[in-house]
């Protein structure tokens, strides 16, 4: 009887742990880890040409735990600007494995000067300006999200 209860308990624990792991990797959530520890952002996904073109334009504010994840179908050179963007943003330019290649801190609202992220990129995470520096998010940090190819992801789901 004790062995059966122990086995049932173990199975229950494994199931709960599996559910927690699944809940942590969802389309609406980006996890970031690095020397600073880890952080979670609720994100909107911009994965179509139209969504990427509009981005966070014309929004007067954004909660500090939120952001926008721009997803591109293949590695490429990426450059952003702040046309019609009303809030300062930090831009995390990310390679196909989910590793942050560049952080641009506090992009100036409404500035149309191009902000180059580099080559071979597939993602850009935009969060409120100043948060990356405040939290210690830097180049080399890793993102976890199902849009990364899980076979090569530095931090797979």
Give a structural overview.
By secondary structure, the chain is α+β, with helices and mostly antiparallel strands. It contains three helices and seven strands, in the order H-E-E-H-E-E-E-E-H-E. Strand 2, helix 2 (49-54) and strand 3 (66-80) form a beta-alpha-beta unit. The termini are far apart. The model is unreliable at 1-23 (pLDDT under 50).
Q: Which spans have pLDDT < 50 for at least 5 consecutive residues?
A: 1-23
Estimate the global geometry from the Cα principal axes: globular
Record field, number of beta strands: 7
* Continuous helix count: 3
The succession of helices and strands, N to C, reads: HEEHEEEEHE
How far apart are the termini?
36 Å
Major sheet: size, sense and barrel closure? 7 strands, mixed
Oligomerization category of the chains in this entry: single chain
Beta-strand share of residues? 35-45%
| Computed Rg | 18 Å
Major sheet strand order: 5-4-6-3-2-1-7
Mean pLDDT: 89
Helix content: 10-25%
- Structural classification: alpha+beta
Brief summary of the model shown:
This protein is of the alpha+beta class and 157 residues long. The chain has helices spanning 2-24, 49-54, 131-135, and strands at residues 29-34, 37-46, 66-80, 89-94, 100-107, 115-128, 142-144. The chain contains three helices and seven strands, in the order H-E-E-H-E-E-E-E-H-E.
């Amino acid at each position: 009887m004790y062995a059966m209860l122990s086995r049932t308990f173990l199975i229950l624990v494994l199931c709960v742990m599996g559910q927690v792991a699944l809940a942590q990797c969802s389309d609406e959530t980006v996890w970031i880890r690095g020397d600073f520890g880890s952080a979670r952002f609720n994100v909107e996904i911009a994965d179509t040409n139209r969504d990427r073109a509009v981005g966070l334009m014309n929004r007067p504010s954004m909660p500090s735990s939120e952001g926008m994840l721009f997803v591109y179908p293949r590695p490429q050179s990426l450059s952003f600007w702040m046309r019609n963007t009303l809030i300062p943003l930090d831009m995390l330019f990310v390679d196909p494995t989910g590793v942050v290649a560049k952080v641009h801190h506090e992009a100036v609202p409404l500035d149309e000067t191009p902000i180059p992220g580099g080559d071979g990129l597939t993602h850009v995470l935009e969060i409120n300006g100043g948060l990356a520096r405040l939290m210690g998010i830097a180049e080399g940090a890793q993102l976890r999200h199902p849009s990364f190819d899980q076979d090569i992801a530095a931090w797979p789901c």
